[in-house]
Inverse folding.
């Protein structure tokens, strides 16, 4: 029997694609992008196009496993294979298959023991972006840990600095919808690797360019997106706040701002004017490395070629000053008034529009029932420090799901030291034997999105989707929801919420007061697959700043249904004042500059104290992987050149390094061996390397041995792009 099932890609990617899975006799035989989805438009990225290889990989975890050997990186048969054809990521001797009953008993027993001896906060959940689907990413798991009274995890590894920066100005996490980019005439991709990380925005940009739009890329790395831009501006890492201030300097001085919009819809323009006055192009040029004429030209073009839009992405906020940098960039459309125009504004994230009923999904009240207060919060970025030094109580039990901290967490050597502790009881729920499962006591098998049903929001568009189950779970795999439901039973948790079915939970998720969900229920999602959020609904004054504008506003809009989403055309910002806050009292109360503060990163070659490690490393994501996911899949790995250190020719020559040589890359935290690539993608003083599984790399080390646990200025996020290193020749290519 043959059927086609509508699903949605749950990976940590703004595009949240609609996916059609063909199933024949119970086996998935084809995956394709949903042609009816207005943003997916029938295509998938290269990695998910190969998803059948992932679902049916011989390397899947299919049964619960108990460790029998020592904790530590499994040695891989690494000798063969630049691209791993004969390699497998499945461990060989360390594991013993057990039943789910045995596994659940053992986990429950350990959690109870730890609770009695050290208190429930000695248990730490650790999850992130393995799946972003609403139920499997954050529902039954949260209920479970709340009822248990476990420590709370501050999930700050990715986006908090940017979110805080954005919200400090506009008060909410919404922005220009991707479809509107087709109507822009000036598009700035600011720290935004669209080809690599957000490929479904590209067709809209191409459409705009066919009509004469200009694409500008601001990125210290010459990405694939930069390579096909109309204008590429390499910028010194971590200096974006200065560039934005410099642009505002020119825009204000030359009267290119929208005085009417500014006076009606912003707060603190005079303070901003004073701050921007301190950043004339000469000063900005020194910091950013961008020439004075280019700064002036960028500012003038951005303010006068209309509509102009900024796609700013999270790369900008992975530096020490990333929160303030995002804040400064977010001010630009607020002073030019480009929020008023179809194809104007800015997008960092669209996630704030979905507003599911999170309280009922996650039940934080259960934690108060158990502990009488909120549990302590532990920042996931600091896992190394936490596992090695935290007391009162120490972390004794760790439950990892939907994350691979032994690959993705900064300061890898410290993370591994912590995970190796013999007294730490670690459970990992996974689809594959990752870097992290190597340190688990119990490994549980997890379903992929083919094998369970869920609801999918997005952080790059405004369509809510149903992701239906396409096939039966492989082996004994269970979804996150099923796993935590079973564990709750084992722990004796009796609250009714632990017995809810997936459908009931979806209904709860949708039973929110968010007006944008009006008229959207499970039955409709099941029937239609994707549904555009209800921007046409009554409340143009909702908390999300909804204010629909008829699509006829644009001449090219005939093909589009309903209205454009123009959240801030009439002002109506999500801040307390309802205005775009160019001056923020909340920041002042935190002891920060209420306008914008530029603090040069300490991990910067411009810091004189940094002389032993003079190169700034961008510890980037690979275009063909998703963080560490897909690293182990031979058909995907073939598309990506792994283990490279990209370095400028001047820096290479100074170290007698030639293209193809093996180099040692090091700082005080650690060292790795990579292959030098001298190809002009980075400027002098900057090097770049990308994320990969540690155990598939030489000496089981990846680039996170070099990154630090230092946190950003706002939001306490990770600083993967503020890293200083030195490079030396290790072995010349023969
Ligand atoms: N193919 C692929 N897609 C992905 C991911 C992946 O790993 N691979 N990861 C997903 C995840 S988790 C996320 S959060 C999103 C993130 O998507 P993006 O926010 O686009 O993420 P990054 O790749 O971290 O950064 C974007 C760009 O910022 C640049 N950059 C670094 N430092 C600076 C700086 O100081 N200033 C400026 N102007 N630019 C800088 C980087 O070189 C990079 O090209 O993508 C998602 N999509
Ligand atoms: N050096 C460096 N480090 C980085 C970054 C960087 O740019 N550079 N990016 C950072 C960013 S932005 C992020 S978001 C983090 C991401 O960090 P993580 O969220 O840990 O990301 P992944 O590496 O994708 O690991 C997710 C794991 O979840 C598993 N998984 C997938 N679906 C499910 C499921 O349904 N259930 C369970 N139980 N498991 C599942 C996958 O097999 C995979 O091993 O990494 C950060 N680390
Ligand atoms: S990873 Fe992103 S681009 Fe690729 S299929 Fe998933 S949502 Fe689409
Ligand atoms: Mo991320």
């Amino acid at each position: 029997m043959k059927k086609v099932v509508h699903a949605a890609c749950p990976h940590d990617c703004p595009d949240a694609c609609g996916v059609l899975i063909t199933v024949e006799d119970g086996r998935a035989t084809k995956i394709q992008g949903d042609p009816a989805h207005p943003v997916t438009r029938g295509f998938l990225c290269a990695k998910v196009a190969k998803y059948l290889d992932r679902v049916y990989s011989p390397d899947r975890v299919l049964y619960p496993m108990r460790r029998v050997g020592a904790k530590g990186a499994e040695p891989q048969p690494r000798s063969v294979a630049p691209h791993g054809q004969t390699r497998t990521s499945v461990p060989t001797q360390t594991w013993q298959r057990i039943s789910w009953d045995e596994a659940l008993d053992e986990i429950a027993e350990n959690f109870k023991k730890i609770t009695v001896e050290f208190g429930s906060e000695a248990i730490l959940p650790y999850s992130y972006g393995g799946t972003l689907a609403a139920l499997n990413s954050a529902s039954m798991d949260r209920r479970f840990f709340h009822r248990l009274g476990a420590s709370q995890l501050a999930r700050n590894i990715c986006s908090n600095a940017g979110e805080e920066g954005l919200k400090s100005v506009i008060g909410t996490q919404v922005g220009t919808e991707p479809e509107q980019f087709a109507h822009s005439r000036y598009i700035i991709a600011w720290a935004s690797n669209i080809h690599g990380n957000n490929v479904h925005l590209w067709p809209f940009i191409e459409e705009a360019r066919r009509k004469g739009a200009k694409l500008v890329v601001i990125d210290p790395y010459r990405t694939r997106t930069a390579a096909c831009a109309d204008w590429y501006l390499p910028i010194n890492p971590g200096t974006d706040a200065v560039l934005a201030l410099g642009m505002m300097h020119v825009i204000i001085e030359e009267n290119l701002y929208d005085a009417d919009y500014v006076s009606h819809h912003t707060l603190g323009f005079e303070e901003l004017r004073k701050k921007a006055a301190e950043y004339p192009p000469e000063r900005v040029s020194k910091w950013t490395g961008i020439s004075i004429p280019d700064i002036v030209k960028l500012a003038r073009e951005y303010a006068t070629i209309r509509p102009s839009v900024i796609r700013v992405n999270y790369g900008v906020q992975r530096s020490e000053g990333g929160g303030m940098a995002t804040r400064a960039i977010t001010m630009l459309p607020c002073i030019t008034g480009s929020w008023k125009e179809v194809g104007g504004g800015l997008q960092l994230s669209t996630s704030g529009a979905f507003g599911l009923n999170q309280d009922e999904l996650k039940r934080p009240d259960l934690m108060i029932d158990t502990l009488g207060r909120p549990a302590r919060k532990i920042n996931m970025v600091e896992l190394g420090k936490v596992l090695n030094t935290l007391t009162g109580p120490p972390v004794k039990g760790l439950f990892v799901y939907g994350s691979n901290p032994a690959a993705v967490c900064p300061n890898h050597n410290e993370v591994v030291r912590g995970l190796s502790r013999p007294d730490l009881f670690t459970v990992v729920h996974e689809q594959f034997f990752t870097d992290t499962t190597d340190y688990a006591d119990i490994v549980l098998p997890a379903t992929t999105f083919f094998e369970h049903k869920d609801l999918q929001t997005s952080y790059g568009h405004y369509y809510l989707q149903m992701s239906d189950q396409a096939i039966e779970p492989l082996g004994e795999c269970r979804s996150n929801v099923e796993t935590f439901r079973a564990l709750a039973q084992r722990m004796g948790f009796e609250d009714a919420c632990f017995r809810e079915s997936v459908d009931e939970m979806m209904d709860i998720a949708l039973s929110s007061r968010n007006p944008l969900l009006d008229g959207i229920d499970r039955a409709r999602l099941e029937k239609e697959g994707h549904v555009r959020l209800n921007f046409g609904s009554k409340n143009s004054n909702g908390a999300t700043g909804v204010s629909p504008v008829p699509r006829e506003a644009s001449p090219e809009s005939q093909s589009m249904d309903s209205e454009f989403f123009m959240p801030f055309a009439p002002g109506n910002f999500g801040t307390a004042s309802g205005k775009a806050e160019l001056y923020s009292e909340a920041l002042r109360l935190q002891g920060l500059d209420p306008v914008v503060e530029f603090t040069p990163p300490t991990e910067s070659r411009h810091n004189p104290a940094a002389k032993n490690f003079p190169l700034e490393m961008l510890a980037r994501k690979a275009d063909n992987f998703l963080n560490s996911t897909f690293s182990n899949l031979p058909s995907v790995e073939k598309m990506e050149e792994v283990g490279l250190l990209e370095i400028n020719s001047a820096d290479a020559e100074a170290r007698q390094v030639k293209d193809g040589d093996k180099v040692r890359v090091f700082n005080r935290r650690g060292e790795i061996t990579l292959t030098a690539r001298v190809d002009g993608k980075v400027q002098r003083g900057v090097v770049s390397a990308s994320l990969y599984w540690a155990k598939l790399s030489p000496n089981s080390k990846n680039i996170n041995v070099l990154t630090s646990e230092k946190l950003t200025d706002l939001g306490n996020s990770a600083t993967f792009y503020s890293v200083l290193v030195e490079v030396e020749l290790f072995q010349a290519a023969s």
